[in-house]
Amino acid sequence: MKGFSKVIFLSLMTSLAALLFVGCSSSKETDTIRVAEVTRSIFYAPQYVAISEGFFEEEGIEIDLTTTWGGDTTMTTLLANGADVALVGAETSIYVYAQGANDPPINFAALTQTDGTFLVSREPIENFDWDMLRGSTFLGQRKGGMPQMVGEHVLRKHGINPQNDLNLIQNIDFGNIPSAFASGTGQFVQLFEPTATQFELEGLGHIVASFGAESGTVPYTGFMAKQSYIEKNGDVLERFTRALYKAQQWVQSSSTEEIAKSIQPFFSDTDMEVIKSVVENYKSQGSYATSPRIKEEAWENLHIIMDQAGELPMHVNYQDLVNTDIADKVTK
């Protein structure tokens, strides 16, 4: 009987240990967040770093990343519950709010804090001056989008009226702008990277100025989620934002080469030297946000830019569409 009791005891202890092991191993659950990004861009390097360097994984987050190609498509995906979080320009949240959305998208984390486009000329210019655009044909970005609104803002800053002082073309689809310039349309064009750098390497154009360096701080691209999702998933978004903040700090302290190597898997068709050049351009002008907190002065600057472009449907208070609680928690 004693031997039999000992066997039962050992069996029970083994079973208990197994249960404890299972409990411990599953105590940290992994939450999947579906992220819809407006485009695939080196401009968003900290997001890809957070994935490749395992910062999301450390926080128990698995990212299901989809590129939805365009602000309208990205916002529609978020509102239709096709994504939990959208990476898109903050201006889209203002457009939706102005339409009376019952469950508006709320901006909770910044990713980029300047414009990401560059002014490219067809001919090389040694001593560029913005006044050289007067009377030229300027191939701008899509009307109503942040790139075009910032582009017009910078032109006005330099005393150029976009509608009167040059021939402004802004009716070409985003994806066709580079090919339109390459085929001979325009003397100047507003381009994102890596296209601007690739044009230089191929002799198709020459980078003469940065709209990001001229625009001032704006909530250019960031993460937003519907208000109801934030209310139900505050802890998950806190861990998401903590991972993002780790990546932002990592980008800030790492070399251009280290950053390029980290994000290269997301840009397998882009030459490594081009990736490094683009990262250096964005990092040197402070385009990558160093904190997820969206600043109120940046929010107000966004309103000024939109209002000047005639695209501001209404002024929306910072507190109405920006959640700072999550960013404050992870940065303290």
Secondary structure elements and their pairing?
Layout: H1 2-25, E1 31-37, H2 45-52, H3 55-58, E2 61-67, H4 71-79, E3 85-88, H5 91-98, E4 105-112, E5 117-121, E6 137-139, H6 146-157, E7 167-169, H7 177-182, E8 188-192, H8 195-202, E9 206-210, H9 211-215, E10 221-226, H10 227-232, H11 234-253, H12 256-263, H13 272-284, H14 296-308, H15 318-321, H16 325-331
Parallel strand pairs: 1-2, 1-3, 6-7, 6-8
Antiparallel strand pairs: 3-10, 4-10, 5-8, 5-9
Helix pairs in contact: 2-11, 11-16, 12-13
What does this 3D model show about the protein?
- The protein is α/β, with parallel strands linked by helices.
- It folds into two domains: 31-114 and 218-331, D-Maltodextrin-Binding Protein, domain 2, CATH 3.40.190; 117-215, D-Maltodextrin-Binding Protein, domain 2 (3-Layer(aba) Sandwich), CATH 3.40.190.
- Helix content is 47%, strand content 16%.
- The strands form two sheets. The chain has a five-stranded mixed beta sheet with strand order 2-1-3-10-4, sandwiched between helices. Strands 7-6-8-5-9 form a five-stranded mixed beta sheet, with helices on both faces.
- Helix 6 links the parallel strand 6 and strand 7 (167-169).
- Helix 2 crosses helix 11 (234-253) and helix 11 (234-253) crosses helix 16.
- The longest helix has 24 residues, at 2-25.
- Mean pLDDT is 92; it is low at 1-27.
Supply database-style keywords:
332 residues; alpha/beta; D-Maltodextrin-Binding Protein, domain 2; 2 domains; five-stranded mixed sheet; globular; ABC transporter substrate-binding protein; signal
